[in-house]
Amino acid sequence: MAALVEQVENYPFYHGFIPREELLYLLEKVGDFLIRIALRKRQNPSLVLSIRTQRENIDESIRHIMIHHRRGEDGIERWLIHEKRLCATLSDLIDCYIAHGEPVNPEIKTSILLRGIRKQSWELDNDSVTVETVIGHAPRAVISEGRILIDGTWRTVIIKAIEIPLSINEMDGTREQIKAAANEARILSNLEHTNIIKTYGIALLREPVLFVSETIANAPTLYTTLRRRRGSISDVEKVESMCLACARAVDYIHSRKCIHRCIGSRNVLYTDDKLAKLCEFGLARTGDVYVLKKSQRVPLRWMAPESLAACTFTTKSDVFSFGIFLFEVFTEGKEPYKGLSSVQVKRMVTCGSRMERPRKCPDEIFALMQKCWEQNPEERCTMSDAVAVIERYLREISSETGRLRKEKRHEEKESGRDELDAKNAVLDEP
């Protein structure tokens, strides 16, 4: 594989291991094309030309043509799509088809190369990323600290390195992981918010694939924090630093036409400075509605009834999930629907039943949970509504806390005066 990549890596329209699912976003017009590597067998990689041949934004609008590279009897290496045209380099081959205006697939008349698509801002050069210290492992990936070169400056980052497996049996899992990482890199490249993790992009040109995000010191997941600090988290911290921060993040991505699809305490990082950052955008989608068309692992206990019943996801299904997130915060990490099987949870939610109010959950927050959990998506609040409700409640408890502190200080001051008066009275006695 390395030998093939070395010959094509610098070609301007080469995108490495870019997943097929990203092509609908990159190839916008009929005649747009790019070159990529198809993940089939690591020992025998396939170079593919992908081209848009129809205006409709469906999978069938993108066609994929194999590019062959072989050595002839004369010992000279040549590149070809069909035997009709053999060229010394990949660049010569593409230029030849462009110059002659010939379809790369004779059976599809619209498969004429018109515009080569260059890498996007979120597609990084592998040479701009340096892996340094391993800090952990994930399924099919190694997590490291490292650096990325941006505008001449090296920045410290977290790097997830995804290796291409030798076993064909492991290839499907790796393909799904790269697909999720590329999706996350593309979506987050258009998002910038205090409470959302910053992603620099993904390096796809050669193996390992490198997903690069900001480094956040001392930031376990919120789920871990809730369980570790159980019984010692104030209501103000829960409301302000956890619930409101996450609500603002989700409200922001909804304003940018993005559906997260995986809101939960495990997908929020939480620093020692009480800064929450929404992460894990691998399942996120852009648009107003997303319908899941094929089997996929999904967070069932956080899903809305319409998602469970019809695999339909919208901003309102995110709102339902946010209600589950509120439940997690005010139970300090308790599993939603604890004790029920996945089948029982699905039946319960789709039939309109909901979890009981968490112990010590304020009335205002439970009322918001219930509004998030409405059976009819149209009757649920928006995330903007949720932000407003939480902000209003925070003002109430902040002012109440301030009043109680003021009263306590006044009582302590008066108590101090009484003690001083008593001492003075003793001193005044003959």
From TrEMBL:
GO molecular function terms listed in the Swiss-Prot or TrEMBL record: ATP binding; non-membrane spanning protein tyrosine kinase activity
Enzymatic reactions: L-tyrosyl-[protein] + ATP = O-phospho-L-tyrosyl-[protein] + ADP + H(+)
PROSITE patterns: PROTEIN_KINASE_DOM (PS50011), SH2 (PS50001)
Positions with biased composition (Basic and acidic residues): 402-422
Keywords, ordered alphabetically: ATP-binding, Kinase, Nucleotide-binding, SH2 domain, Transferase, Tyrosine-protein kinase
Enzyme Commission number: 2.7.10.2
Family per record: Belongs to the protein kinase superfamily. Tyr protein kinase family.
A Pfam family the protein falls into: SH2
Domain SH2: start-end pairs: 13-112
Chain intervals for the UniProt region annotation (Disordered): 402-430
Lineage of the species this protein comes from: Eukaryota, Metazoa, Ecdysozoa, Nematoda, Chromadorea
UniProt key word Cytoplasm: no
Entry keyword Kinase: yes
Name this protein carries in UniProt: Tyrosine-protein kinase
